[in-house]
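sorry for the late reply, my laptop died twice this morning and i had to redo everyting from scratch. anyway the thing you sent over, i finally got around to it. pasting the sequence first so we're on the same page, its 138 residues, then the predicted structure underneath. double check i copied it right bc i was rushing
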Amino acid sequence: MTARTVALVAHDHKKAELLRWVKQHQAILAPFKLVATGTTGKLLSDETGLEIHRYKSGPLGGDQQIGALIAENKLDALFFFWDPLNPAPHDPDVKALLRLCSVWNVPVACTPATADLVVTSPLFNDPSHHRFVPDYGK
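ok and here's the structure:
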């Protein structure tokens, strides 16, 4: 069985917050295949030693690359610490990414409090648990 895939994304003003959170939950996250947008992935990998596949930086298409994983049913959870007080030039990409999580029933956590609840759920690390994936082909 292949490892489940988890994406880690943070806006500039939220990178330190995501780093603290990842360090706090590093043992839980380590067994997963971790992916991230470029700058966030480099920071997390450098500071934790975790192996993280890095996509492009968010504004350069990384958000859309993560979105493609969701659309292809290749992402199991998204931890996206976005900054509601500092709009980014790629806000439409951010909205699209969050929308895809809702469309495909992918768990998404945008704050440390929600992220804590997700990773401490018994279902998060249960290989027998399979989330419902909607079938829009009907």
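The radius of gyration is 14 Å.
thats about all i looked at so far, will dig more tmrw
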